[in-house]
């Protein structure tokens, strides 16, 4: 027999040692534990013996991000000032002119427009920077 995907077999055996949660191995016939590689950023590997191709691994949940080697779709909550769509490897900053006051945002539409009379000059802001000067 051939050593299965999602595992590795000591040289000369077909007794599989499963890849640990947080790792996967899409190749058959692996003979070393290093064949189990950390789950891709933006995706998670919740159980042992994950053997599918990287693009078939489950995606991190919207409002959260996964930096690699994660076992949960809720690895890290998206911080205020940013948003995280499904499958995010890192938070996307709210653009200049907007702010994001809440953690866990899932879309750029969750970034609020800076209100009239206030300014938001930078990306990643969690509140307006301040009031505009009189007459502006």
UniProtKB/TrEMBL annotation:
Highest rank taxon of the organism: Eukaryota
Q: Which InterPro entries match?
A: Growth_fac_rcpt_cys_sf
Protein's name in the database: Tyrosine-protein kinase ephrin type A/B receptor-like domain-containing protein
Taxonomic lineage is: Eukaryota, Discoba, Euglenozoa, Euglenida, Spirocuta
